[in-house]
């Protein structure tokens, strides 16, 4: 890229730099600083004044730069700042956080009494409210609304004040810039890189949502008291889908962190953020700016220095002060330079390449290399020499390296190279002999084990797979086998136990079978990698998530080392990585891993069937969790069709997962009868191929409980959940999975009418989620919390229920958006709570909004719309509008008869219609309906269940037995 500028270009760049520094100052300070910076240069002064005039009046201040010619004659007086104590929207101004030319950021607190909350409010000052300023401000608010990530400051509210000033409210981050925070705690290099990975998580999330930040710097990367990074200030961010996304001249850029393309009118891409991340990384590691800039460097000097090549990281560290080096884990400058030499320096250098195409292709790639550095694995930034790879291997395998080193020294100190070569030949012969002996020993072990299946030894004509396995596991401890043969057999047995759902036994076998395992060639390495994949599945089922993530990294490194160009192996690694990220609740990254794996599978001529189905299953679960039910059902059908194409017909155990997915998707779509039929097929197939026990059967029974509950078979549903809990506990189920079981059992108990037990069950589920370390904003946890609020409402604890439900609904609005399934679900449950509280004034708007949201998410046949007619009829009955009540209730009854409605649900609707008819004096019709409804309700639910209790009271009044 050429950096030769004409005199006019240099003048414009200097003017732009001065403009950037003064544009947001108040008029008096702006003029004083303008005169100081231009220092009598009339042409420069006129150019800057032209920029100021254009900024004040144009939609896009830089769209027509060559024609800016008018000088600024006067400055408008600065409007008075809003007084503290003023209310804007629902927020009261209680303090000033920061000032700028566009306006100010205020500390605010909630003033409408809905709940207590402190936040930060950004407001455009009236005197700065040009069209350009307003568009930039509103663009930031729109971008923030679309970004929901734990490391990005959350947008809470927004709108216009009574004076027409645009504002938005975001969470108030009480923290320090990342560089100051690291220095204050004197963090070492590893701790700094672990913290920086949080920054990369936020940036790559923004990039996946097509947003380039363009102003990444320490002051926009705050770290709170819990050590969590928050990315702020999307004021100059651009969405890549915008028509002007490649525009580069933006007055809000910060020159210390500006990329070459920002300074040279080149297209802006995600590579711009990579450059800025490199500058921040350089400062965090070395304590110095890569171009020697500080906040006091004059603008003209900044521009000159930014045209040079960046200072190498190690050189900058060697030249830093003793005090700065000591802040990085107590090092001195020389030690710091040595620590940064090699891969860290290469990572920073790759970020700071002047050509955008030569930088990291994505924030993910940068994050992967930093993780590789943390794990002492090779990085992708630079090709490593054989010697460099050897040094990394030695650091990862110090014990084995020491042993090898001792043997090597002994050989070289002996009789020379000739003797060494002779010894090498004899050693190869001994290895071949050992492998032959190992194979014979393994074969003898399997022969002895299979002999246990003979009728004369088993004392039975039938021996189950489980009995054979248990016998083999016992005999494995008695046979004399070589360590490598024993490890191989342990892993083999562990794999079979895992397929039976016996996770604790399988984990113990794998733990022993992987200790000391070292592959000698490609075939051994890939076989070992597959065993490690299986062990990761086992650990995932036991929720040992950090171990899963570490193991996934080891598997990926093993395959990259022995099969770098094998796409099928890369697919397998992505599968395991996706599982690890999902276990760590990094759902976005997990979905990206799995979709990338499926893309590879689609290109393979003969894809591995089982692995592809497992990826389908995992991605299906992700879509289901996100409420994308139509996509989930389509993916389940696609998985079954894939099996058909590859010869996996009916009766094949691998079909259990896709059948379960289809059944659950049908249930989500409001088709419980169809769902029950498919789920029964899945359970029957699992029972026939594996047996009644294990974690997989626990999952199937858990899902069955949902379907039975929706069909009104509440007691059967509770029994299914209890069975799932027993199976899961026996198989080594972790606390998060136990929480699911507890929550589902609470749902069944609530539907049956045992409200106190339902409340206790939901609270137990939340306690288990706390034990599992599930975050407060996790979507699954929030769903359980909504269930607790609902159960409290049924139990009559209305104040507590209303407080919780209001908070959870607003949380869903903030985290997920108003068109999301979590918000629709919370709004629906709030309407049900209002019905139970007999509050139609609050309930009717909630019901109307809920129906509006659900229409965007599910098909018109969904049962939620049947129930909506019921709830509306209830509200009309409360308001004594019997005509509307009867009309809505008849609509509900008609839908019950044409959809797959639960008999108990139909009975509830019939009893409610009887109440409406009785209020109209139609006693005979009311009695007839009650006579149909009561037997069903009495069989399905407990006497205290609210719908049955109301029906029984009406029956006594009408004289119905």
Q: Characterize the main sheet.
A: 6 strands, antiparallel
Low-confidence stretches: 57-80, 239-252, 383-440, 446-463
Q: What's the N-to-C terminus distance?
A: 91 Å
Percent helix, as a range, is: 55-70%
The strand count comes to 11
CATH architecture of the domain at 175-384: Orthogonal Bundle
Strand coverage percent: 5-15%
Q: What's the CATH topology name of the domain at 175-384?
A: Transferase(Phosphotransferase), domain 1
Quaternary structure type: single chain
Q: Strand pairing plus helix content: what structural class?
A: mainly alpha
Gross morphology: flat
Q: Using only CA atoms, what is the Rg?
A: 34 Å
* CATH class descriptor of the domain at 175-384: Mainly Alpha
Average pLDDT: 77
What's the tally of helices?
A: 42
CATH superfamily of the domain at 175-384: Transferase(Phosphotransferase) domain 1
Strand order of the largest sheet: 1-2-3-4-6-5
How does this model look, in words?
Among the domains are: 7-67; 87-171, Phosphorylase Kinase, domain 1 (2-Layer Sandwich); 175-384, Transferase(Phosphotransferase), domain 1 (Orthogonal Bundle); 397-434. It is built from 42 helices and eleven strands. Strands 1-2-3-4-6-5 form a six-stranded antiparallel sheet, covered by helices on one side. Strands 7-9-10 form a three-stranded antiparallel sheet. A two-stranded antiparallel sheet has the order 8-11. Helix 25 runs antiparallel to helix 26 and helix 38 (863-878) runs antiparallel to helix 39 (882-898).
